[in-house]
Design goal:
It is built from eight helices and eight strands, in the order ββααααβαβαβαβαββ. With 203 residues, it is α/β, with parallel strands linked by helices. The chain folds into two domains: 135 residues, Rossmann fold (3-Layer(aba) Sandwich); 62 residues. The strands form two sheets. Strands 5-4-1-6-7-8 form a six-stranded parallel beta sheet, with helices on both faces. Strands 2-3 form a two-stranded antiparallel ribbon. Strand 6, helix 8 and strand 7 form a beta-alpha-beta unit. Helix 1 crosses helix 4.
Amino acid sequence: MMKKLILFDLDGVLFNTKKNMERAWNDVKKEFGINIDFKFYFKLIGIPFNQILKKLHVDKNKKKIKLFYKKKSIIYNKLIKIYPNVKTTLKYLRKKNYEIGVVTSKDKFRTTKLIKQYKLKFSVVICPSKKLRGKPFPDPINKALNFLKVNQYNAFYVGDTIYDFLAAKRSFVKFIYASYGYGKLKKQRLLNIKKFSDLKKHF
């Protein structure tokens, strides 16, 4: 039997992390004297943190900012909420013999912490690394496919931003748009879910 795989973005798909990110970013602004509103940061969610800083033209103290943001995000962990029916839907997909995994731009430490906190089980978890170009490049999705030895035509990626869409397209995997998330995609003919449990209608 050919392996079938469903990969998920983390922020805006499995977890609502917006309040956590906003609090952490506002602390960054105060600490480093950055006059960039959260709404501009939020528009870039989906790509690695370093790339967000680059697009925002934050050129100084990037390593310190990244570490400070990470620490604040951990402190405000209680503001992160798992979306309704995530655990039951993931269990349903596993029973349907789908491999399930995560491809995210969130760092490994915070990703692992959330997965363990909510006792989620995945066959593969891909986070940013120096060896991989981040989304919208296809590298993270391709790594997941190679790790599990799954053909790209038997794989799906569930995401909520244009960066997720582009990464899926460039990996030749089918894209599922989580319209309840953070992005606003106007692409036509996208397979669309309005809530996480809608995945049961398609698998």
